[in-house]
Design a protein that fits this description.
Largest sheet: 6 strands, mixed
CATH class: Alpha Beta
Helix content: 25-40%
Radius of gyration: 14 Å
CATH topology: Nuclear Transport Factor 2, Chain: A
CATH architecture: Roll
Number of helices: 3
Shape: globular
Number of strands: 6
Distance between the termini: 34 Å
Strand order of the largest sheet: 2-1-6-5-4-3
Number of domains: 1
Strand content: over 45%
Amino acid sequence: MTTAQARHYLNEVFHSLFDPAISAEATARYFTPGYQQHADGKVLDHPMFVEHARTLKSTLQYATVTFGNVIASGNTLASWHIVDAVKHNGQALRVKVVAIYQLEDGLIARVDELTHLMEGEASDRDLGTRHT
């Protein structure tokens, strides 16, 4: 996968994740059944990730992702990106994410990430892994 293809792919994944018209189950099509997300000291498996996607969709009115950099090497992608979002209660937040993605058969099998709440309520620091 080229860097341009990786950027396009990740844009698709995040569009699916943050678009309220796309179900959490439909978003899960980008991830292997054995998917694991290692983020900020927490581990989410595939079912927990689907719950996480559902939580994001119910918490956020909308979100946009701006990629600062995307790198592709074999089955590994890496990115740092900024998520700008507005919650349904009108509160804005901004999160910086640094992530490494492992692909299997074109699907995301594992993500190792660190998130940093740049702007927003301190209670939203766990938004990158919140799943209930």
